[in-house]
Protein: Ferric uptake regulation protein
Amino acid sequence: MNADNLLEKAKNYCLKRGVRFTTTREQVFKLLSNHTNAIGAYDLLDELKITDPAAKPATIYRALDFLSQQGFVHKIESINAFVMCHHFGDCNHPVQLLICDDCGHVEEIQSNDFDNALKEMATKKGFTISHQIIEAHGACQSCQ
Structure:
């Protein structure tokens, strides 16, 4: 899905949910949608400052928090970066990410078998999973 279609989908999603998709949130969304790899908050801030010179770290972090809460982006904890989710709104899905340590490409996959196995193991331990992001590091096909 191209960046314009993704943006339109996000706007409609926010409208349905009754949340504000502010100009800053939209700008950060657009910046993220132009990246195929994960990108750090400060790198996004540098890009945002081109159109909004007054932008501060708090600006970018507030926008990223909102985008994350809406399911538009995923935070990759292990590398402290963010990546666009191209199928947000379809469901409340578990996230499994394949992260190439060489080129930085991030591929989102979804394995219901993996999700079900994890939930089953958690349940046996008396644990309820409220949010899941699984990160796997390695080398993508292009870098092997």
Remarks:
- The chain has a mean pLDDT of 91.
- The beta strands are 73-76, 81-84, 95-100, 106-109, 133-138.
- The helical segments are 3-17, 23-33, 41-51, 57-69, 112-124.
- The longest strand covers residues 95-100.
